[in-house]
Predict the structure.
Amino acid sequence: MSAIDLNSATPANRLRLRVSTTAETILRSGHPWLFGDKIREQNREGQLGELAVVFDRKDRFLAIGLFDPESPIRVRILHAGKPETIDRNWWERRLKQTVERRQGLFDPLTTGYRWINGESDGWPALVLDRYSETLVLKLYSAAWLPRLEEILTLIDSQLSIERIVLRLSRNIQELARQRFCRVDGQVISGAPLSAPVVFEESGLKIEADVLRGQKTGFFLDQRENRRLVESLARGRDVLNVFSFSGAFSLYAARGGARSVQDLDISPHALAAAQRNFRLNQLDAAVGNCRHQTEKADAFEWLQSSASHLFDLIILDPPSLAKRDSERTGALQAYEKLVRNGIRLLRPRGILVAASCSARVTAVEFFQIVRGGARQSDRKHVELRTTHHPPDHPATFKEAEYLKCIFMEF
């Protein structure tokens, strides 16, 4: 994969940018985004996906990245520091290094994990997830679309799989369709697919709707928290709020839970949870656990429920603040969830509260949960806090989204 393939550009007419002093400082700190309003000089119009070289005020190399003329994030940084040649060998080395960082992280009974985690792995706005023999390539920037064939060739040369499914963020789907004839959920390499794929996580069989499901089809980032829930579930009645396809419940069941109840507003998610339990019926603990599903708005259900108490409650809502304007509402929503969750816990019950809202910091979220615990006037013990799993590294502020806290009351 090379700049020449895309640009037909010689060094003399390569896209060159100079940026504000603020941007210079930000890029030198390792931040992977250059915003358009920080560009002070540009030698010519740039093409989507071409390499842009960024220089400082003294004409010294700062960074190189993928250019997107229509995005507020004008350049997604690939490399900063000393100049390097971005050619096919460079891309091959980067993919090899990224995959090697996952070696030793997973046992043979786990065949679902993240191979590339965007900017934090040096692949800005690109995610690559493995679900058994299926890979899902998720693009969050149109800058990758002109390079898609090269990416596929690169992946095929290093990773042995049956197929690759393309997933696209909503903001680039129309452009992908019109200019590149690519659509969200398209199998772009390998054998056709028309149904969810089944993979293993810690020996549990779980389906992932890689063609139409949220994100890449499943939430791989909660794996370690699910394992912790399994270790705490024996003999407990468990409520899994915002249950999605019931993975937390599966782990709780295998951990010896007396019962598990999945609560979600989506009938499709609840149907997936039922299928996942059927996939694991040969496990004695799962087979013996009473599993129920309930379709309801989680906020309303928690607010109105009073007759049924639980020994372990999992609160794992979707992102409640996708933009800064939603932050205040998200903080209030977390407070409400925690207050009502604690209310439904039996003595010695455990609350597991998670947030995937990047605009709510871990400090803020943990303060909310701890504040709710104090206001409950119940004795409580904080068991643990967790953050990103090792296959989802977060190397800059905007990438830090996942946090979870375990408390006993």
Observations:
- The CA atoms of residues 206 and 276 lie 6 Å apart.
- Confidence is low (pLDDT under 50) at residues 1-8.
- The chain has three domains: 3-80, 88-197, 219-408.
